[in-house]
Amino acid sequence: MKNNNIENYNETIFESIKHINEYGDEFWYARELQEVLTYKEWRNFYKVIERAFVACQGSEINPSEHFVEVNKTIPMPKSASKVVIDFMLSRYACYLIVQNGDPRKKTVALGQTYFAIKTRQQETMDFCTLSEDERRLELRNSVKGFNKKLFNAAQCSGVINYGKFYNYGYKGLYNGETAQDIKLRKRLKPKDDILDYMGSTELAANYFRITQTEEKLRNDTTIDTEDKANQTHFEVGKKVRKTMLEISGKAPEDLPTPEKSIKQIEKEHKKLEDKNN
Asked: What does pTM read for this prediction?
């Protein structure tokens, strides 16, 4: 893209280079973003990526979830090819990159506006207007992200047997049921993930269990052994269960299992995206 086209740029230029993976997640390639932001040399743009990476770390967000390094083969003269480094970037990573870019570039200023607005729109999406499938997708992604944080918090608390630790949380929430018990009750296949077969209400309960356990482990320095961490996870799950019974009168194990898995919904969304593009 040439500089004389800059005046014609609008938000569609950033949408045009957006990609969707097999799970329905959006991402951008760094080298394509480099071109749109009119950085001629990769080495200069790579410095911007590094600053954005550091900013992500400073926000206590795991950069590896937003900056995924990949190799890409590019054509060279005389039918040759060359393998170069690229990155798959989340919307948040792109936002940090444009915030750390050269503000004198009109394309960077445009990118700052676009990613700031779109990131905010994503954060403030009205959950009530989403369909049940959309709610499930939104919650499943949140659960996935916080499960990683819970894993780190558990590790810092001395947990070694993570399967046992996670089962303590399930046992508290599901009145003694382990993950395997839940899988059998839902009549799932051995390799199925039980979180992919939960409705939005059940996922929300597990999300609350995960976030509150992570918060407790991270802030309570007295939880410094595996047994204490396991018991904490159990107690949090038990309290979430009690709250559900008090508010709705329904236990999590009494909630219906959806016919579609999360992976099926993601595939449907991807097909719809492909059809509309």
From this structure: 0.56
